[in-house]
User: Fold this.
Amino acid sequence: MSFDLSPLTEGLSINAERLMSRIDELAQVCPIDGGGNCRLALTTQDKLGRDLVMSWMQDLGLSIKIDTIGNVTGTWDVGSGAPVMTGSHIDTVRTGGRFDGNYGVLAGLEVIETCQTLGLKLERPLAVTFFTNEEGARFAPDMLGSLVYVGGMQTEVALDVIAIDGARLGDELVSIGYNGSMPCPGVIPHAFIELHIEQGPLLESQGFVIGAVTGVQGISWQEVVIDGQSNHAGTTPMSLRHDAAYIAARITVFLRELALRFGGNQVCTVGKIDLFPNLVNVLAAKATMTLDVRNTDDELLQQAEKEISQFLQVLAAEESVTVTSRQLVRFDPVVFDERVIKMVETISQQNGHSVQRMPSGAGHDAQMLARVCPSGMIFVPSVKGISHNAAEFTHTSDLIAGANVLLHAMVALTNHKFTLLEAAS
Ligand code: GLV
Ligand code: MN
Ligand code: MN
Assistant:
């Protein structure tokens, strides 16, 4: 290794008890059975989580800015120049675990508090942000707040997005009081580094403590609507059916088989199917379903999208129904900055943690920040790879290890002498 970060960060360590107690306290906000949380974006539940985290930013004396899409940034104004930023999200899916997103935000607070307590004279400001609607479970696209932050979507367009429950995003933002005035695109950080649980099984199964994340796979979401014909379940011969439920099932099976056929990093999911009228003895007149298709290789992702689209057409003709689709999300695969990846590897090794390079299967705010500044991510293992589930769990020792890697990386990045260019050599 041709560069050594240890003189900058030797002996530095976060306060594990403080980090764990904040994670526990945030997990008390809108808990669900099994130890997880339900704080869908911009609901009153999300507001309660936001209020708590913002109160902690206030306790640390951070300068707090809320932007026009509701992203909240707390900055410790020390040094000069663009801030070194971390952040993630505190919205959850309906069956969210307590670590997804929350861990990264609270570790960011912990990094700042550690530096403040030790009286470190940092040469750049440190910032921590929680971004609006990372999950995309209520409003599409996912990572909407960070997308708007980097100028990838206009605020006005984002404010008009309609939720799965019919609410308008801009109205919900006003009703929870997080319609801020800081313009988007926001301040471009010197670098962005996000700490997150892996949410998959690789680190645990291979015995690594830290993942140095190389990038995020491409994500394609669409909503498919099948218009069939409702009819009597007892009297309609099988040959005369235009059954939207059956067609939705065929599409679900096609996606699974496509993913198995492609192999590699290809994954496909049908996570939501709504049937109408959804009754035991009535053929479904309508099915509305979502398709989530991901691959690290954009060419393969495009191929998957093409095959799905052809299948939908064939099926519509075969079954004499109308099948329409609408793209909800399309993000290309993202490659993180090699210098940041290398820094995560080096710091992990210097701290005695086994580290493995790996791509992210989940979407993250860092993939949006990567459009405007050197960016990267740190992963820690998820027990049994379970996430988007109340049973999501990461061992405390791993949470602490990850937070310490974040601390060391952020401190190193604030040093004007330690430029990112040096890290690349
Ligand atoms: C966000 O959690 C995603 O769907 O990857
Ligand atoms: Mn997340
Ligand atoms: Mn998530």
Observations:
- The longest strand covers residues 218-227.
